[in-house]
Design brief:
Distance between the termini: 130 Å
Number of strands: 68
Shape: elongated
Structural class: mainly beta
Helix content: under 10%
Oligomer: single chain
Strand content: over 45%
């Protein structure tokens, strides 16, 4: 390590006013940078490269063509990737699960920066060729506004950041401060060429470096300079802020620098031997990770690239790990996962994964071609990186489910949580990091899974408390919503309904939960509903030793949606839960039978999700054909959930299927009825026994009326001693026809089978004596 303080001119002559610090801290709760995901270059306001947890194992989830892939993506709260193309001039939104393009917007010749995502979904991006700074609707790709800044940037440069008050800062030669919604310029800071976005400290101060070798600290509301620090060479690196608020950056003079953010005074330098272009990443333990070209200065010869880990407090090297990047230079910044991994992309198309503590290479993946981007970490731990000519997604295991033995419990007790991974990693140990929003609810920093395991438990430790406290527990990597827990003295914890929305006239199950368990005498909880549409019992008793009890919440039929706040009271503590009572919706329409002979009726039924309110409900009815007709509507009577209606059909010459439609308040349900041809129901003889030479009358019956034009029926006899016509026709609108069977004299008794055939065959036997 070299201390080169004597070679620099430090103009750190100003300190940040305390009053400004207080004002900016008061705005912290109004932060306008999108939460979750990876909303900007280097991940966050501190530019420290820290992201969520990742167990990516080198498995490629998907890969899409991206001709120039040195630009890292930004990731929105819903996981959508936003990435520009320096070759095509496009900004694209990409589905994180499949790599499919949601939309693409052409902005100009060259997008050479990572987009920045605001809390309202606006995507900010700079076009190097035209010099325009754009604000784009993240859902549609439609431009909100643009501003001509008239400067040219470098690959990976000119990305924006967003301050606590929503001000959008972009450094494209000059530092601009924009009002995010309108695009109005608030102020500018003109100095020598800026290209990387400012890092923003916890007090709101902006820190950025110029390519001509000066670091600036700038007041965010006015653009006033607090201090500056000069180095003897240009700076292409951005500035990263560590957990101790120190500033870290690389310099073209072959050194890594650390400055005090409050004064701009030098902490230390570390000599590399080659210019340091990438922005360092800084871990939560203040380890500084630098992707560098190296030579014998850092003990590797002739190795050309290495990842270095430096102690942020002292500038001493913790470890160094070589990477095979011949013949390319170090250009991309490291990315740190919350569960102890460091990811680096090399310009020869290789992605490396390191152990953050030891520097050991966990895995690497090579995709032929130039260049590479800085890796970014998705919500579920997927690593997205440009390699060669592709944008690639590397998956692994993540928390697919998280549950607790109780979400409301007594302070001082211990609750067990369980995490289930989306899949097992048969070869490697996996881990999921945990955080709690309240220090009085403690969880371990991480949960480990042995190779092949998918579930693990963890303790939640709490302190005794005299009043209820709330905390949210978050797992990473994960796509799960944080779990909220309520901790307090023994008493009322929560009230809930399942389901929390029902059709009027049906019931929901309410559950009252305690913090802790009921004492020996039990607890009597009083209930009260805010509307008459919901009826609850006046009290619910939670037995001794139990932590919850259920009750039925009965509702009545309503004509419009009602919202009821049900209040549970125990002692002086009251809590509420909302139960929504909805008017009945159309559930289904059916017909019985579903297939009839034309001319025969059938019965349709409409069914609601609950009983109809006072006055009933009118359901609209339609049919697709006149072959099956229905009334224009049917009324479901008050208190009833079904109503029937007649379906009339007409005789047909063929088979037709009609669709019957029922509609209520925009909800449509359908069913079908098949109108069929009539067929032979029977054939009867009178008399059934005749003397030879005599006749018998045969009557053919159909299952329904014959259609227009009549219905021919084929007739046959099994004996020549009984003659019949080849066909008989049943007239339109009739269901039967009679014909004569003629016989001849016979020497012995003879039986003749007379058959009528139409769709099906029916027979009758004539005996001839």
């Amino acid at each position: 390590m070299r201390d080169v303080n004597s070679r620099f001119i430090c103009s750190a002559t100003f300190r940040i006013p305390v009053v400004v610090t207080a004002i900016l801290l008061s705005l912290a709760s109004q932060a306008q940078l999108a939460s979750g995901g990876w909303p900007k270059v280097y991940g966050n306001l501190a530019n420290d490269g820290q992201g969520g947890g990742s167990n990516a194992d080198g498995t490629v989830k998907w890969s899409i063509n991206n001709p120039i892939s040195e630009l890292s993506a930004a990731i929105g709260p819903d996981g959508t990737l936003y990435v520009g193309s320096s070759f095509l001039g496009n900004l694209s939104a990409i589905d994180p699960a499949t790599g499919a393009v949601k939309w693409t917007t052409y902005l100009g010749y060259a997008i050479k920066c990572t987009p920045t995502i605001g809390a309202d979904g606006t995507v900010y991006v700079f076009d190097t060729f035209t010099g325009n700074f754009h604000a784009i609707d993240g859902k549609t790709g439609v431009q909100n506004w643009q501003y001509q800044v008239g400067q040219f940037g470098l690959p990976g440069s000119c990305s924006a950041t967003i301050g606590a008050d929503g001000t959008v800062y972009v450094s494209c030669g000059t530092l601009y401060a924009f009002d995010g919604p309108s695009g109005t310029v608030k102020w500018t800071f003109k100095a020598n060429s800026f290209n990387n976005p400012p890092a923003i400290g916890s007090n709101g101060t902006l820190y950025l470096a110029s390519q001509t070798g000066t670091v600036y600290a700038i007041e965010p509301t006015t653009g006033t300079q607090f201090w500056s620090y000069d180095v003897p060479s240009g700076i292409q690196s951005g500035i990263a802020i560590g957990p101790d608020e120190s500033l870290y950056f690389g310099c073209n003079d072959n050194n890594v620098y650390s400055l005090k953010s409050s004064t701009g005074k030098l902490n230390w330098t570390f000599a590399i031997g080659f210019p340091v272009y990438p922005t360092p990443a800084v871990g939560p333990d203040n380890t500084v990770y630098v992707n560098v070209n190296c030579d014998k200065t850092v003990n590797f010869e002739p190795v050309d690239l290495a990842l270095l880990a430096l102690d942020g407090a002292t500038g001493t090297m913790k470890w160094e790990t070589p990477m095979n990047g011949v013949p390319y230079s170090a250009q991309t910044s490291p990315t740190i996962s919350s569960n102890g991994n460091v990811y680096v992309g090399l310009d020869n198309g290789t992605l490396y994964a390191f152990d953050a503590v030891t520097g050991a290479v966990k895995w690497n993946y090579y995709n032929y071609g130039y260049p590479a981007s800085t890796p970014v970490i998705g919500l579920d731990g997927t690593i997205y990186v440009g390699l060669g000519q592709s944008l690639m997604a590397f998956g692994g295991v993540y928390a697919g489910a998280m549950s607790l033995t109780s979400n409301a419990f007594e302070g001082g007790s211990q609750v067990t949580g369980t995490i289930t991974l989306n899949k097992a990693d048969p070869r490697n140990k996996s881990s999921v990091t945990l955080t709690s929003s309240n220090p009085e609810v403690q969880v371990p920093d991480s949960v480990s899974f042995a190779a092949g395991d998918t579930t693990a438990t963890f303790p939640i430790i709490t302190s005794l408390s005299t009043s209820p406290i709330q905390a949210t527990i978050t797992a990473s990597p994960s796509v799960l919503q944080p779990i909220t827990v309520l901790v307090g003295p023994p008493g009322l914890g929560s009230i809930s309904f399942s389901p929390d929305a029902v059709s009027g006239g049906t019931s929901a199950t309410g559950t009252i939960s305690l913090i802790g368990v009921a004492p020996k005498a039990g607890y009597v909880v009083h209930l009260k509903s805010s509307i008459t549409s919901v009826e609850t019992p006046p009290t619910v008793t939670i037995p001794a030793g139990k932590s919850s009890a259920t009750f039925a919440a009965k509702t009545i039929a309503v004509a419009s949606e009602k919202t009821d706040a049900v209040t549970a009271k125990l002692g002086t503590v009251s809590i509420t839960a909302v139960l929504t009572v909805k008017p009945p919706a159309l559930k289904e329409v059916s017909v019985n039978p579903s297939s009839v002979v034309g001319g025969d009726p059938c019965v349709g039924t409409v069914t609601l999700s609950g009983p109809a309110p006072a006055g009933g409900l009118k359901v609209k009815l339609t049919s697709t054909h006149a072959n099956a007709t229905v009334a224009a509507s049917v009324v479901v009577a008050a208190g009833k959930s079904t109503a029937t209606f007649a379906v009339k059909t007409v005789p047909l010459n063929g088979v037709v299927t009609d669709t019957l439609t029922a509609e209520l308040n925009g909800i449509i349900e359908t069913t079908t009825v098949t109108v069929d041809l009539p067929f032979v129901a029977s054939i009867k003889l009178s008399p059934t026994t005749v003397a030879g030479g005599r006749t018998s009358l045969a009557t053919v019956m159909l299952t329904g009326e014959a259609p227009k034009g009549g219905m021919p029926v084929a007739i046959t006899s099994s004996s020549t001693d009984a003659s019949v016509p080849a066909t008989v026709t049943i007239p339109a609108g009739k269901t039967s026809v009679t014909f004569t069977v003629k016989t001849t004299k016979v020497d012995v008794k003879t039986k003749a089978t007379i058959t009528a055939n139409l769709g099906v065959s029916k027979t009758a036997v004539l005996t001839i004596n």
